[in-house]
Every structure is written in C-alpha cells, then in structure tokens.
Amino acid sequence: MTRHLVLLGGGHANLHVLESLADSPLPDVRVTLVSPYRLQIYSGMLAGWIAGHYPLAACAIALDRLAAAAHAEFLCIRACEIETASRCIRLADNWTIDYDLLSIDIGSDVSIDRLQYASDRVAPVRPLQRFAERYRQYTVNGKNEPIAIVGGGMAGIEIACALRVASGYRADVTLLAGRDGIVPTQNSTLKTRLKNALKARGVMIVDEDACGVDGMRVETSSGQHLAAALVVLATGPQAPSLLRGSGLPLDEAGYLTVDASLRSTGSTAVFAAGDCARFPDDGVVRSGVYAVRQGAILAHNLRAVLMGGSVQDFHPQRRALYLIATGSRHAVATWGPWSWEGEWVWWWKRHIDRRFVCRFRRY
Ligand SMILES: Cc1cc2nc3c(=O)[nH]c(=O)nc-3n(C[C@H](O)[C@H](O)[C@H](O)COP(=O)(O)OP(=O)(O)OC[C@H]3O[C@@H](n4cnc5c(N)ncnc54)[C@H](O)[C@@H]3O)c2cc1C
C-alpha cells in the first residue's frame, strides 16, 4: 500500500530529506512538499544580498526543482492547521491533505513581544521572502532615507552593517539593540568586535527597546522618537502560530517538543526539526547550524519508519561556528569562547554559504 509522506516547510532539515529522496527514492511512498514560497532564501546570505554582494537568485534554492528531483509533489501554499487526530493538514485554500508520516520544518516567526505597530514601513525579517519584497520597495521609494533595526542579535547586526554599505554610507542606520545592548549573552571579546564593526560602518547603536512604530517614527523605551522610513524587526524567534491547536505537545513557549530522534513526543507519525522543534537538550539553540545538522538524522529516521529499520538519535555538537557578515567584505567568526575577524573571515563565510546553496541547486 502506498503511504504518504508530507514535508511541511522547506527549511534546512527538510532540504536534506529532499536531497536524500532525490539520491535514493523510496518505493511505494508518495511525497508532498508544502511551502508558501517557491524560492527558499538562505538566511546566511540575506545580508550579502542587501550589501550587493550577491543577486537574490544566488541566495535562493528553488523548492519546485528540488521537489521534482525528489519525485515529490510541490504545493506552493501555506498550511493553516495541523489536525493530528485525523492526520491531515488544512491549507490556505481550504483544501486538506492527509498524511501517514509528517515532517515539520517550518522555522519560527519573528518575536513581536509588546511592540505596537500599524505601519507598512515595518519589515519583520521573517518570512525572508516577504522581507526581501519590503526592502525592495524601500529601495524604490525611499532610497537613503533613515532606517531603524530593532534587535541587537547577530541577524540585526548583519543587516544594519549591510544597509549602510547598500546606501553607500548615506542612509542613517540606527540599531535599537534593547536595554541589555548587543548580543547580551555573548562574551565581551565578541561584543567588542561587533560593536567596533558597527561603529566603523557608521551604525548608531541605541541600547533601548522599541515600544511602537507610528508612521515614520519609532518610539523608544525612554520616549525618544527616531525617524525611520523602514523599520526592520530582527527581534529573535517566536514559536510559529501554526503549531497552536495542532494537538501536538508544545513547550511553554509554544515550540513542538520532540525526543532525541526528532519524533514528536505526542505522535509517532510526526517528526520535527529546526527552529520549530524543542529538542530535549537545552544546548540546541535556534539557529541554522542545528537545523542543518538535524537534516541527516531526520532523513534517516523518516526512511527507517517507512521502510522498517531503527531510528537514530541526534547528538548535538557542543559548540557551533557562527560567521557574522559585518559589511563590505568583513566578517566576524565565533566558536565557543574564541572569535576572529577580517576579510579572510568574509571569504571563508562566502565559501561556506555558497557551498550550502549550491548543494541544493545542483538538481
Ligand atoms: C538575517 C538572518 C541571518 C541568519 N544567519 C544565520 C547564520 O549565519 N547562521 C545560523 O546558524 N543561523 C542564522 N540565522 C538563523 C536561521 O535562519 C534559522 O535558525 C534557520 O533558518 C532555521 O531553519 P529551519 O529549518 O528551522 O527553518 P527555515 O529555514 O526558517 O525554513 C522554514 C520553512 O517553512 C516554511 N513555512 C513557514 N510557515 C509555513 C506554513 N505555515 N506552511 C508551510 N510552510 C511554512 C517557510 O516558507 C520555509 O520554507 C539567521 C536568521 C536571520 C533572520
């Protein structure tokens, strides 16, 4: 009997599943990939696109092509509801699809927290595809008008530096880093490197929270008003709303709890990986590094369930390498307590990023 494997989301781990299916198809298994965008933009290269180092096409993986190579049907649509009890997914056009085995890799939403806004000038970094459209509009309408970035994490820093480079150092770029300053959980050497890089690019750092966006102004926690024609929200991850109401066990923050084999703690027919999953080991943070590493285990385990075999556990690495682009051909690397910077780090990052994207573009 033919079984139906549904891959929900074209995230890093599901890319590996598709690659595995392209290289070695599963007999008697129908595969469907559901994702709302045809092109999966690789987040590690987003800042490089903004800075003008790459065209957007070079940062994107065509999910329809990869799905075709994996003998999978591609449904370019958003899923609106997961009904675990009846093993089906409701799609945005009100159609439903049934599954025998489900692999969820839908990433995360951008944390809005208490920020109030009703402005079309606000551009959350996720979904990346929508962010790219908003940024394009900004470049058409308001070239070199002031920009504010909310969020002092690595993504916010990369984007702030890239925006200065993109404007030829003409647009005022303010990074609202939050009251704890930039990368608050990182060590002081890394903080200093990143702060110096931001200063060298001419990014203004404000250690305050953003409270609201009204028209062309951002209000900060001290009551300051900053002019901004574009407000980028890089405020970190938040659990995807799709998971609520699925009937699957979630942690207190709303992420899907999985066991060490990436299987849902509430359904033997559901696996999940990447940002949307809560792995038992707290050392697994929400980053592309772990989502990528989980891909091979996810591919193996889905195959094991469908073909008969034993599942494997994911053993997270203790330390992860992060490469942060800081503007024009400069980047900062960090691994555990160590960090490095320079043009060579930028070339290193470029090599790793391009290799990742090319891996899934060869089909
Ligand atoms: C600007 C930026 C730079 C970053 N740089 C780095 C970096 O250098 N290194 C690093 O390790 N991490 C980085 N990150 C973090 C990294 O992007 C995420 O941790 C990573 O993308 C998570 O991968 P994922 O597989 O969970 O999901 P994602 O890669 O986010 O993919 C999710 C997929 O699910 C789809 N989807 C979403 N909702 C639905 C739905 N309702 N129905 C169907 N499909 C859906 C999406 O369209 C997408 O295809 C960066 C993040 C940002 C924002």
UniProtKB/TrEMBL annotation:
Pfam families: Pyr_redox_2. InterPro entries: FAD/NAD-bd_sf (IPR036188), FAD/NAD-binding_dom (IPR023753), NADH-Q_oxidoreductase (IPR051169), Pyridine_nucleo_diS_OxRdtase_N (IPR017584). Keywords: FAD, Flavoprotein, Oxidoreductase. One of its GO terms (molecular function) is NAD(P)H dehydrogenase (quinone) activity. It comes from the Bacteria. It comes from Paraburkholderia tagetis. Residues 4-295 form the FAD/NAD(P)-binding domain. This is FAD-dependent oxidoreductase. GO terms for biological process: aerobic electron transport chain. Its cofactor is FAD.
